[in-house]
């Protein structure tokens, strides 16, 4: 039987009430799958790839407490009046994809990129679109795929 996965959840707290909804859905999905997790907070979506890279580096250096089978990024970016939105969205998504490809990481992408708070809440709430739960399930699916190919713990 496969060992239960251990997940690093990185939550951007810029829109804390939306992040809390995303986390609620994600944690329910992880609990249902029997996965364990640790939660880490960062200021915004832009900082999520760096936080995951810190954990990957610590694990590469042998830190036992930094062992994760998968990584879950939870955040919300709401379009404003400037191009800041475009940079934050592109760089956070691109940074996570580069980490996944370069380090063979199972990453669940739960970063909402929306026009307004109403769209964010509709996607974050567990009783609506539950994007936190979807991101957690994607992470778990990628962990299983890694294990299938002998790239992760069984």
Topology:
Elements: E1 6-12, H1 16-32, E2 36-42, H2 48-60, E3 70-78, H3 84-103, E4 107-114, H4 117-124, H5 131-148
Helix pairs in contact: 1-4, 1-5, 2-3
The low-confidence runs, each spanning 5 or more residues with pLDDT under 50, are none
Global structural class = alpha/beta
Oligomer: single chain
Please indicate the percent range of residues in DSSP E strands (runs of 2 or more): 15-25%
Radius of gyration: 15 Å
Q: Can you count the helices?
A: 5
User: What integer is the average pLDDT?
Assistant: 95
List how many beta strands DSSP finds: 4
Major sheet attributes? 4 strands, parallel
Q: Span between N and C termini?
A: 7 Å
**Spatial order of strands in the largest sheet:** 2-1-3-4
CATH superfamily: Lumazine/riboflavin synthase
Describe, in short, the structure shown.
α1 links the parallel β1 (6-12) and β2 (36-42). Helices cover 49% and strands 20% of the residues. With 154 residues, the protein is of the alpha/beta class.
How would you characterize the overall build of this protein?
Helices cover 49% and strands 20% of the residues. A 4-stranded parallel beta sheet has the order 2-1-3-4, sandwiched between helices. The N and C termini lie close together (7 Å). α1 links the parallel β1 and β2. α1 runs parallel beside α4, α1 crosses α5 and α2 packs parallel to α3. It has one domain: Rossmann fold, CATH 3.40.50.960. The protein is an alpha/beta fold. The mean pLDDT is 95.
């Amino acid at each position: 039987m496969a060992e239960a996965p251990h997940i690093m959840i990185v939550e951007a707290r810029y829109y804390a009430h939306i992040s809390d909804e995303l986390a609620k859905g994600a944690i329910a999905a992880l609990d249902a799958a029997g996965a364990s997790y640790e939660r880490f907070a960062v200021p915004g979506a832009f900082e999520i790839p760096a936080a995951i890279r810190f954990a990957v580096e610590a694990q590469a250096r042998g830190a036992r407490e930094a062992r994760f089978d998968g990584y879950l990024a939870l955040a919300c970016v709401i379009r404003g009046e400037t191009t800041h939105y475009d940079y934050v969205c592109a760089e956070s998504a691109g940074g996570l994809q580069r980490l996944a490809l370069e380090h063979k990481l199972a990453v669940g992408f739960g970063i909402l990129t929306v026009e307004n708070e109403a769209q964010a809440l509709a996607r974050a709430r567990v009783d609506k679109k539950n994007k936190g739960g979807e991101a957690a399930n994607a992470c778990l699916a990628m962990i299983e795929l890694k294990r299938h190919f002998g790239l992760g713990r069984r």
